[in-house]
Amino acid sequence: MLEIFKNLLTEKGAELHARTIAGEKMQITRFAIGNGTYTGKETEAALAKMTALKSEKNSYGVTGAEEVNKATCKLFLAATNEKITAGYYVTEIGIYAAGEDGKEVLYSIIVAQPDKPEWMSAYNGVAIGSLKYYDYISVGNAENVVIQPGSGGVLTLDEVATVAETREYLGF
Predict the structure, then answer these.
(1) 159 vs 31, more confident
(2) Can you spell out the DSSP letters for 135-147?
(3) What is the pLDDT of residues 69-87, one digit of tens each?
(4) Tens digits of per-residue pLDDT, 83-94?
(5) Which residues, 6 or more positions from 112, have their beta carbon under 8 angstroms from its beta carbon?
(6) Number of structural domains, the chain?
(7) What is the pTM of this model?
(8) Is the pLDDT of residue 2 over 80?
(9) Which residues contact 49 (CB under 8 A, 6 or more apart)?
(10) Can you tell me the distance from the alpha carbon of 50 to that of 105, in angstroms, rounded to the nearest whole number?
(11) Sign of the torsion formed by the C-alpha atoms of 42, 44, 50 and 54
(12) Nearest to 76 by CA among 9, 21, 158, 15
C-alpha cells in the first residue's frame, strides 16, 4: 500500500467542491497514476496549485464508490499493468472530476512518501498485475456526485460484491 505524504483537494477541486455544495452536479471522471519527483518538502499550498500530475503515466476509470456520509465518498481505485511496457514507481495519484460545464480538473492529489513509492511492474504478457487504492474524498454534497465507472485492475471476490452493491446503489 502506498505510504502517503500528502492527500489534499487542489484549488480547482475546491472550486468544484463549492459548486457542488451550491447544487451543481459533479462527475468523478477518472484517476491517474504517475511517477513525478517529490522531495517530501512540498507544502500543501504548492500541491493545491497543481492542475495535473507532474508525470502522468496511466489513467483509469474509477472502479467503484460508496457514500460515507453526505459530504464524503470512498473511491475504489484499481490500476492494472495491462498496457504498461516499462515498470515505474508510483509516486502520485490524481483524482479528476468535471462540473456541469464538462471541464475536467485535477480534483485531488495524493503524493507518496518520497522513500516509499509503490512499484508498478510492466505487463509480462502472461499475468496481469494491479495496484489497489482506496481514497476518501470530500465532495460537499454526495447527492450531486456521479461516478464515471471504468475498469482498472483485478479485484478480490469480496471487492467484486462490494463494487456490485455500490454500483447498484449509485445507479450504474
Answers:
(1) 31
(2) EEEE-S-GGGEEE
(3) 877 888 899 999 999 999 9
(4) 999 999 999 999
(5) 2, 3, 4, 5, 38, 90, 91, 92, 118
(6) 1
(7) 0.82
(8) no
(9) 10, 11
(10) 10
(11) positive
(12) 158
* CB distance 62 to 151 below 8 Å: no
For the record, the C-alpha cell of 32 comes out as 491517474
Q: Which three cell numbers stand for residue 82?
A: 495491462
> Do 146 and 25 touch, CB atoms closer than 8 A?
yes
Give the pLDDT mean for 112-121.
Answer: 93
Q: Is 126 left (phi over 0), alpha (psi -120 to 50) or beta?
A: alpha
User: Smallest Cα–Cα separation from 88: which of 133, 115, 112, 120?
Assistant: 120
C-alpha cell at position 50: 497543481
Residue with cell string 487542489? 10
Cβ proximity of 90 and 35 under 8 Å:
yes
Q: How many CB atoms within 10 Å of residue 170?
A: 17
pLDDT over threshold 80, residue 171:
no
Which helix (H) or strand (E) element contains residue 18?
helix 11-21
C-alpha cell at 22: 451550491
- Structure-block grid coordinates of residue 31: 484517476
In terms of residue numbers, what domain contains 13?
A: 4-170
Give the span between the Cα atoms of 162 and 156, in whole angstroms. Answer: 10
Burial class of 154 by CB neighbour count within 10 A (0 to 12, 13 to 18, 19+): middle
- Count of helices and strands (H, E) across the chain: 3, 11
